[in-house]
Design a protein that fits this description.
By secondary structure, the chain is an alpha+beta fold. The chain has two domains: 62 residues, CRISPR-associated endonuclease Cas1, N-terminal domain (Ribosomal Protein L15, Chain: K, domain 2), CATH 3.100.10; 156 residues, CRISPR-associated endonuclease Cas1, C-terminal domain (Four Helix Bundle (Hemerythrin (Met), subunit A), Up-down Bundle). The chain has seven helices and eight strands, in the order E-E-E-E-H-E-E-H-H-H-H-H-H-E-E. A three-stranded antiparallel β-sheet has the order 1-2-3. It has a three-stranded mixed β-sheet with strand order 4-5-6, sandwiched between helices. It has a two-stranded antiparallel sheet with strand order 7-8. Strand 5 and strand 6 form a beta hairpin. Helix 4 packs antiparallel against helix 5. The chain is flat and about 55 Å long. The protein starts with a strand and ends with a strand. 15% of the residues are buried.
């Protein structure tokens, strides 16, 4: 609920904390928690998106304020969504960023946790991802991009169990699965991707674009699926 300029969080009618609304860019509620009308109205006026997830982490819906952006911007977005060459360029840049971050994560694991991970194996996958990054600059086909991204995701997630540094018995990972996630790690990954989708949609709306027409139409399984 709204308390002055703060978001008040209560459990069983007991106040457990307050957060200044000015510090927030978005709010995600998990479970059956609700938001007071006053809080929703203030979030709408300050362009703070509210997302609601089920107790199992399934996306239910979002509450956002008025859409912004001019007609030319929207028409350009529509036109690019049907242009395979421009769509491929945007998709390629997203995938390059994703693979770069994955490679950086592998390199950081070998640097910070070299005693508990197979450094040679991590270096080998990092090298393959680097080769993939070099290859992506010449790809101009969406189907080829999907295949390359899928192969890279398989290589990355093959090392994921080693990146779980604590409570490995409780957080076992035997590959990506979803709908519904079959283990704790996949449940956490799917939840994180839902939060990411919330941030992406909010960013698109902030600059006047339509999230429903976004080129990245779904974020799950550790990869983006493109039109």
């Amino acid at each position: 609920m709204l308390d002055g300029g703060n978001v008040s969080v209560s459990v069983d009618h007991q106040l457990i904390g307050k957060i200044p609304l000015i510090n927030l860019e978005g709010i995600v509620t998990f479970g059956r928690a609700g938001a007071s009308p006053a809080l929703m109205q203030e979030c709408l006026s300050q362009h703070i998106a509210l997302s609601f997830l089920s107790p199992h982490g399934k996306f239910i819906g979002r509450v956002v304020g008025p859409s912004y952006g001019n007609v030319v911007l929207r028409k350009t977005q529509y036109a690019r969504s049907f242009d395979k060459e421009q769509s491929c360029e945007i998709a390629r840049n997203f995938i390059i960023g994703k693979l770069y971050n994955q490679r950086w994560q592998l390199e950081r694991m070998t640097r910070d946790h070299g005693l508990v991970v197979d450094v040679d194996e991590f270096k080998a996958v990092s090298k393959k991802l680097n080769e993939t990054l070099q290859m992506l600059s010449e790809v101009n086909d969406l189907e080829t991009l999907r295949g390359i991204e899928g192969n890279a995701a398989t290589q990355y997630f093959a090392l994921f169990p080693q990146m779980v540094l604590q409570q490995r018995d409780d957080f076992k990972f035997n590959g990506r699965n979803r709908r519904p996630p079959k283990d704790r790690v996949n449940a956490l990954l799917s939840f994180a991707y839902t939060l990411l989708a919330h941030d992406v949609a909010s960013a698109l709306e902030t600059v006047g674009l339509m999230p429903t027409l976004a080129l990245c139409i779904r974020i799950d399984q550790g990869e983006c699926l493109w039109r």
